[in-house]
Amino acid sequence: MAERMLAAAQEARGNAYCPYSSYPVGAAVLDTEGGVHVGCNVENASSGLTVCAERNAVAAMIAAGGQKVAEVVVVTSNGALPCGACLQVISEHAAAPDIPLRVFSDGPNPTARLYRLNSLLPEPFRRLT
Hints:
By secondary structure, this protein is of the alpha+beta class. Helix content is 29%, strand content 24%. Strands 2-1-3-4-5 form a five-stranded mixed beta sheet. The protein starts with a helix and ends in a 9-residue tail after the last helix.
């Protein structure tokens, strides 16, 4: 499954709209039913309207009827981690706090790193009840 998700994230990265940063990102999320959903970053001249690849992938999962994220793969040129907003969105929809989050760099020095979501966002915001 990891190879399929990596290939999906790489393909999505090729569709990124990033004329301002020139920093394409692709992401793939695996839902608990086995579906793979992808997203790429989509920038905007009004930078606050830019949406990251990871959040677009989670939104695609929800739009397709997926309920919970089981795993995340992100591909960038330098292996940078998802931003805090993306980690919060992933956490809200994660099947468990410690789901795997794999970050790949396909730049000049390819890397692959495995994290657990709760190691990157140990105390996510939760809705007050």
